[in-house]
Amino acid sequence: MKIDYEENPITYGIEIETDIRKHEENLSATAIGQKVLELFNNNEIILMEDGSIGGFEIVSTNASFNYHKQYFWNRFFDSNIREYLKSYHSKSCGIHIHCSKKHFTEQEQAKIVCFVNSEYNNNFIVQIASRSTVYSSSYKKDKTLDNYYSDNRFEPINLTNPNTVEYRIFKGNLKENSFFRYLEFVDSLNLYIKSLSDKKNNVQYYVSSLKYENYLNFLYSNFEKKHYSNLFSWLKIKGYEEYHNKIVFINNNKFSFRRRFKSLCA
After folding, report:
1. Is the Cα torsion angle 48, 49, 53, 54 positive or negative in sign?
2. CATH architecture of the domain with residue range 11-198
3. What is the pTM of this model?
4. Which pLDDT does position 237 carry in this prediction?
C-alpha cells in the first residue's frame, strides 16, 4: 500500500504485541479483537495469537512510511482501544517493524545490524527503543560488516526472513506519538544507511559513519522537523538536539565539540 505519487518506496509491516487489561478480562480476547478489526479496512491487518503475551498481535500489511503516517492508523489511534489493551505496561510486549528486504543490498543490511548492535550506540538505541538497560544485554557487540548474519531470529535485527529486515528492538506501545517515533526512527535510519558509500575496506570510514552522531547529523541536515515530528520532539526532550548543535562535523565523519559538552551516550 502506498500513496499514488510514490514510486517503489520502502514498505513496512508492523507487529504490535498486546495484553488485555485486567479490568476487561471478563471480555473475551475474541470480542476485543473484533473491536480492533473494525478499526481497519479489509485485509489491512490480521490478529495472531502469541503464547508469550496475554493478548494478541496486531499485524499490519505492508505499506509505505507515508501511507502508515497519513492513513493506515488514523481510526486506531482515534479510538478508545487502549481501554481494552495495553502494551507498554507489559513486561513481554514489543513492537517489531519489518522493512522490505529488496530495497537493501547485503552491505546495507550489514550496516543496519552493526549500527543497532554497536556498543558505542548502545545507550542511544536502548533509549530510543524505550527498553530498559537490562534489555541491552541482548545486543551482539561483536558484529562487523563481514560477520553480521545470524540464524537466530530473536536478535535485535532479524535477517532470517526471506523478504524482510526486521527491527525487534522496540518496547510495546499504544501511544500514537511513541508508535510513530519508532517508525520514524526506522525509516530515517534506513535512509541514512542507504546514503553511505560502500567503502567496505575503509575501516575508519565504517567505524565513524556508523556512530549515532553522524546519523543525527544526516537527520538534522536533510529533513524538516514536520516530516519526522515525533522523532524530532523526542530528540529535543532527551537533549539530543542540544547535543547535536554543539558538534562541529568535519567531512561528515570526524567531529569535535564546539565547547566542552559531555556525550549523552558516554
Report:
1. positive
2. 2-Layer Sandwich (3.30)
3. 0.87
4. 94
